[in-house]
TrEMBL record:
Gene3D superfamilies: 3.30.70.330, NagB/RpiA/CoA transferase-like. It comes from Piliocolobus tephrosceles (Ugandan red Colobus). It comes from the Eukaryota. InterPro entries: FTHF_cligase, FTHF_cligase-like_sf, MTHFSD_RRM, NagB/RpiA_transferase-like, Nucleotide-bd_a/b_plait_sf, RBD_domain_sf, RRM_dom. This is Methenyltetrahydrofolate synthase domain-containing protein. The gene is MTHFSD.
């Protein structure tokens, strides 16, 4: 399929690509490819171009999407002993997983780690406070143009992942973006179809070509909250945590269909996440900024509306275990009151909105085999 103007909307272009790949038997498992980032025959060969890019050679940490066409790309990252980050499917349990192969892993084991099963079994979650710096981003596409315009499968997860990485300070406008597609997926895309939240690509890898797009269009500057629905917020806990942080930083986080909510004058503002990056998994200032005290629960005069109760702690749990879990989920409180013998703790947040966000984010949190009970402290006291 030669690059040409196709369709009148993004969905028209998607449907044409999907139909063409199925009718010409270019698609590979899983099929049919409709409503997917399509896997295609020759995907592994196309991915072989990735290690030859200078951007790959100099990168230390690479984010690769979890779809089937990028399986070989994930393998090459692991084989090159670089840090591989894979977004969690549909962002249900967080943003990233860091793939950690067993020591001395052979090529066969690395290939298994690069599969969807390996991503589930050989990974550890990376929290918002990890201050990870991503050097190269590899995304899937349904269609892409030689100018760097990209169309995904229509659910917006790749664009949202990128915007969340911007909000975390993990990527910048200079971070290269690569996509791996079949030659038939390279088509003309009218620029008027692009929206401000759409990511663009710098390199297109196909089974026959490496295309440097020289794209000058700026990447998204962060999360466009007015495009985020309440339904999406409910599905994605890490998005709720990021919204609470940006709200505390004084940003407008009005959701789709909401009235504009501006920060109150004099409200405490948090330091943006982009400040003071540090290498992945290296302890940073926030490790010490969460003050932990041992003592009584909040008293009658305490601002209970901003406090969160955490119960059903394992008998052998330590305060460091809970602090680590909170950092990984991006729900670090200002202060933590630890009551280990009573199997509970209280988390103190700057205001009731941040406390409510934390309660939503921490639902289902487990320490060891125990699922913790999480509620606003006022509600728990009333019970």
């Amino acid at each position: 399929m030669e690059p040409r103007a196709v369709g009148v909307s993004k969905q028209d272009i998607r449907e044409q690509i999907w139909d063409h790949m199925e009718s010409q038997n270019l698609a590979d498992f899983p099929r049919p490819v409709h409503h997917r980032i399509p896997n295609f025959k020759g995907a592994s060969h196309a991915a072989e171009q990735l290690p030859r890019l200078q951007a790959f050679k100099t990168a230390r940490t690479i984010k690769v999407n979890p779809d089937a066409p990028q399986k070989n790309a994930r393998f090459f990252v692991l084989e090159s002993k670089k840090t591989l980050l894979v977004p969690t499917p549909r962002l249900r349990t967080g943003l990233f997983n860091k793939i950690t192969p067993p020591p001395g892993a052979t090529k066969d084991i690395l290939r298994k780690c690069a599969t969807s099963q390996g991503v589930r079994n050989c990974s550890v979650p990376i929290g918002l406070d990890s201050r990870v710096l991503v050097d190269l981003v590899v995304v899937g596409s349904v269609a892409v143009s030689e100018k760097g315009w990209r169309i995904g499968k229509g659910e917006g997860y790749a664009d949202l992942e990128y915007a969340m990485m911007v909000s975390m300070g993990a990527v910048s406008n200079e971070t290269p973006v690569v996509t791996i597609v079949h030659d038939c997926q390279v088509v003309d895309i009218p620029e008027e179809l692009l929206e401000e939240h759409d990511i663009t690509v710098d390199y297109i890898l196909t089974p026959t070509r490496v295309i440097a797009t020289d794209c000058k269009r700026p990447q998204p500057m962060g999360i466009t909250w007015s495009k985020i629905s309440r339904k999406m917020m409910e599905k994605i806990p890490v998005l709720r945590s990021l919204r609470a942080r940006e709200q505390q930083a004084g940003k407008d986080v009005t959701l789709q269909g909401e009235r504009q909510h501006l920060p109150e004058p004099g409200r405490q503002q948090a330091v943006p996440l982009s400040a003071g990056r540090r290498p992945l998994d290296t302890p940073g200032p926030e490790a010490n900024s969460m003050e932990a005290t041992v003592g009584s629960p909040p008293g009658e005069g305490a601002p209970l509306a901003a406090d969160v109760y955490v119960g059903n702690l394992p008998r052998d749990a330590r305060v460091s275990d809970l602090k680590r879990a909170l950092r990984e989920l991006g729900s670090v409180p200002l202060r933590l009151t630890w009551q280990g013998p009573r199997r509970r703790a209280f988390l103190h947040y700057p205001d009731s909105a941040a406390a409510q966000q934390a309660v939503s984010c921490l639902q289902g949190l487990r320490l060891g085999t125990d699922t913790l009970r999480v509620a606003l402290a006022r509600q728990q006291r009333d019970k």
